[in-house]
Amino acid sequence: MAVNQKMQQERQDKLNAVRDSAYMNCQYYLRSNPQYDNVQQLKELGSRIDKHWFRVTDKKTKSERILSIMPLNPKMVLAFTRATCKTMKDLFSILQHPYIFPMCDFDFSLEQKLIVTVQPISIRGSLKDLIYQSRFTDMFYEKYNKRCRGLGLGQVQHFGKEILEAMLFMSEKGFPSHISLHSGNIMFENGTCRLAGYENTLLGNTSRVYPLIKKKIKEDKDAVDTLCFGHLLFEMSAGYELDSAHPGPQHLASQQSPQIVQILNFIFGVDSGKYPSIREIANHGFFSMVRLERLSMFNPTPIHLNQAMKSLLKSYKKGKAKKPESNKKKSRSRSGSTGSNKMYKTAPPPPQNVPPPPPPPPPGLSGGVPPPPPPPVQSPPSDSGRLALLSDIQRGAGLKKTITNDRSAPKV
Asked: Which part of the chain is the WH2 domain (predicted)?
């Protein structure tokens, strides 16, 4: 028992250290972005262990926001630059739709290699919180570890149609596949579902569903949104997440409505052998008869993508953006070793007509002194300055002058 308690304590200490580091990173970022204050660190609201959430106050609007911080994903194909950040921020700001959750602010911390997002607070939380009847401020793995009854047939149809309309709108504006579609990225506000998490696509982030379905979409990359939506629809109706790429007979047996079974079979291509598009799903009889009042009253302003936005979306779709420097070095290393293997399938032949090397001098006759020992290796620069700064940030203290002790000179 003592061993288990010790292991749990060590695990908790590691989690606390990660949270403390995230809090200091947030404070460090806000030092140069004073628009937000009154920082309150929240629990782990999502499944990503490297993403952290904070409740902050926007000084300009005098309203509370949710600020999230996550590290740069090495798989991000877009260049991690200030220009990319500005273009993405402008792109998100023009997404005005009743079923799309707004993005208040978006930023890159180039020095810390962090991505920062700021969005409104949805008191009711996400669609996942509605399904599991939980509060959005509770910890992810504590509130979603049980099965629930699921939503009613009318709710599944209505909420599903709202999500489909949001996805169709983004597709019409040239956005790529969502990839990160799941119930936690659907915010529930005033009885309406609003699509969020669309920034993850351009940042190279995927959802927990993606490892389950990636083998199914090898030959049809456009089907990723279809399968993600199928998983979302199953969770809404069944009250728990689907743990396989396609629902099996045991999953469909728990469905209370034959209409749900029919639309799931259609989405997962059981009868046709192929996946339908999002447009085809929206036109299916299960959703086509649903009337959305907010959509009928919506009078969208024309959206015009400037050249920078078009170039960014084109670069993402073609994957032609520059890779991180570390990947370049690995690529060069692999190409160099491959090249040498191509030159010599076996050991290279010995050189010919080369005189043998002179014999070494006999011992004791070389009257020279031995070479001096190499100078000591210079130690890397200390991180004490930054740690001191972060410590001051955590205590709320002002910056102090630091005194350095240079020990780089070799001792004689």
From this structure: 385-402
Q: Is residue 253 part of a domain?
A: yes
Q: Using alpha carbons, select from 53, 202, 228, 37 the residue that is nearest to residue 125.
A: 53
- Alpha-carbon gap, residue 393 to 30, rounded angstroms: 10
- The pTM assigned to this predicted structure is 0.77
Distance in angstroms (rounded) separating the CA atoms of residues 93 and 81: 19
Domain CATH code at residue 270: 1.10.510.10
Note the maximum CA span of the chain.
102
User: What would the pLDDT profile of 288-346 be if each residue is shown by its tens digit?
Assistant: 999 999 888 888 778 889 999 999 999 998 884 344 444 444 444 444 444 434 333 33
CA torsion sign for 154, 160, 166, 168 is: negative
- Rounded Cα distance, 95 and 167, in Å: 12
Enclosing H/E stretch for 185: none
Q: How far apart are CA 69 and CA 392, in angstroms?
A: 20
What is the residue range of 266's domain? 12-319
